[in-house]
Specification:
The protein is an alpha+beta fold. It contains 5 helices and 5 strands; from the N terminus they run ααββαααβββ. Strand 4 and strand 5 form a beta hairpin. Helix 1 packs antiparallel against helix 2.
Length: about 140
């Protein structure tokens, strides 16, 4: 795997299980702070959503939301982040071309050596129509 800011962060800051998931799936790293701006995106995120790093970094993940995005899922993410807890939420989001996709998004806090949460990782696992997802 080639080195880039995303892989460097993932390889140096995440425990093995999270690191593996971050390399295998669409994922983003957000700051744990006001607005939770995106700081890194995986190549799989770019391929899955159509948004490249320059279009995602610095923005809140709400740029993926649209009319079919479930408000209760957005609230659940907010609650997880405020509590500093991991969790998985099913949500409908939108690609750059405005087509919808349904996925399970696993949110995990990333802590520094002192135990303070510095970032969150959101790992997206697309659901198929067989899983009850559909456009």
């Amino acid at each position: 795997m080639r080195s880039n800011p995303y892989t460097d962060f993932v390889d140096s800051r995440l425990e093995p299980e999270t690191r593996e998931a971050a390399h295998e799936h669409s994922a983003v790293i957000c700051l744990a702070g006001p607005g939770a701006p995106v700081v890194y995106v995986s190549d799989a995120f770019k391929a899955h959503t159509g948004y490249d790093s320059a279009e995602a970094v610095g923005r809140n993940l709400s740029f993926l939301h649209g009319p079919k995005t479930e408000p209760e899922a957005v609230d659940a993410f907010r609650q997880l982040m405020e509590a500093g807890q991991p969790g998985t939420i099913r949500i409908t989001n939108y690609r750059k071309d405005r087509s919808t996709f349904v996925h399970e998004c696993e949110m995990r806090p990333i802590r520094d050596e002192a135990g303070a949460i510095t970032h969150f990782i959101a790992i997206q696992r697309p659901l198929s129509e067989a899983d009850g997802a559909g456009d």
